[in-house]
Amino acid sequence: MSAGEEHRPAERRRRSIWQQFSRPTGALGWLVGHLMAIKNRERSEWLMPLLGVQPNDRVLEIGFGPGVDVRRVCAAAPGVRVAGIDHSEEMLRQARKRNAATVREGRVDLRLGSAFPLPFPDAAFDRAFSVNTVQFWPDRAAGLAELHRVLEPGGLLAIAIQPRNQGATEETTREWGARLSAELQAAGFSRVRLEFNDMRPVPAVCALGTR
Length: 211
Known about the structure:
β4, α7 and β5 form a beta-alpha-beta unit. This protein has 8 helices and 7 strands. Strands 3-2-1-4-5-7-6 form a 7-stranded mixed beta sheet, sandwiched between helices. The longest helix has 20 residues. It has one domain: 3-Layer(aba) Sandwich (Rossmann fold), CATH 3.40.50. By secondary structure, it is of the alpha/beta class.
């Protein structure tokens, strides 16, 4: 057996796990969803103040995963309404279950779908955000254009990422920050800025822009 053949099973396992974080499915997807709900807490709690949710805001999350941040946003201020899109049926099931009360109240609307096209009218939201999903978008320019469309003038977009690919470093995070900053500006967002959080194993970055 060659050295390359010896490494193929490990490489296939890494790809399988990476795909589960992109689109959780089945029993492993169920486990991945529960792990995300626990492990992503620090990153999510850092993002919430940057998002600055106000009473009666309409908020959109792209890639809501197990729905933990949906619940946090709902609790951030009175009268907040949250919509979300995720392309995993398992995550939709977990998120609806986790937010069952606010779904029944009509404050939360969670749907199966992707970042583009978004099934919402123009200027439907005051704020939009996404955490560690943008690296999986097949066309970020199209996704950012859709987010620009569904935000009202003056609305805020926050795109956060903590690179978790093999070999990621602090420099990887800074490269993502520069890339997202340029892409938000190209999509028409103004007052674009970057915020960094010194986390383990690598820092996180959030690109923010105003519609």
